[in-house]
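Q: I'm writing up a methods section and want to include an example of the input and output format. Could you take the sequence below and give the corresponding predicted structure tokens, formatted cleanly so I can copy it straight into the document?
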Amino acid sequence: MDKSSFEFDRMIRKVRKSVSYRSGEKNTSCNHKNWKKKMMKSRKAVVQKLYETCKEIFANGKAGFVPPPADIRRLQLILVKDPPMKPKDVGLSPDMPCFEETENQEAPPPITYVHIYACDTFSIGIFCLPPSGVIPLHNHPGMTVFSKLLFGSMHVKSYDWADNILNTTNQKLSHLRYSQSSGFRLAKVHIESDKTAPCKSSILYPAAGGNMHCFEALTPCAILDVLGPPYSEVEGRHCTYYRDHPYTSFPELELLDGEDKEEEYAWLEEREEPEEFVVVGASYEGPDIVDNF
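A: Here is the clean output for your methods example:
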């Protein structure tokens, strides 16, 4: 395992378990064999093209790097239109055990992570969430992230820091500095909505697009993520978790103007990785990625 893979595996909570999934019984009919070969070729083309495009786009990517618009469109095209990426393209099926509802309703169910590829400049992986599965609010320091909901429905909430959004006076700057010294920082809601596949892929940037987000599964669902660059303890790209508090939690800190809506802002407080957030590892069962570079 290379350095980048090691750092990324640390980010996903010291993966505690490895799970393999195998396909079921084979139909030996000639028509089925031909269909299967055709589908495998198609699946390999989709995931291979994703890998090759990421390899080109993030070739010189460092922290803070944002691909040019033409490259962003290229990658989006693979995820949603060329043809749209589906669970079977990466060896997933909604009837896998990792998507089953758990009997214990008192704690969030474990999340399964499928590692596909990682290097120093980008990573590709899939988070598999059973119903009520939660990925808590966290950040992506210096990263551009493409996310594709492969199937299912989920609730998404994301934020960007409000420092560069507000029309700050000297008094407001003083209040901002005070709040930050107290462990809180003002953020603005970028999006809060439900998403159901098929839908557009989403993109977040180092300082915009909802760099801090959280997910809750409304049904079994799978989210494919491309991170450029990936998390790295060595390079200082740590995954930080947050609690969000309503803006009205600190009425003494007047930062919003009349046209600003209080419900569009929140105070984020850094926290330790939640104990109830459990991620287990599963082996990638999709088509092999071939390094042609």
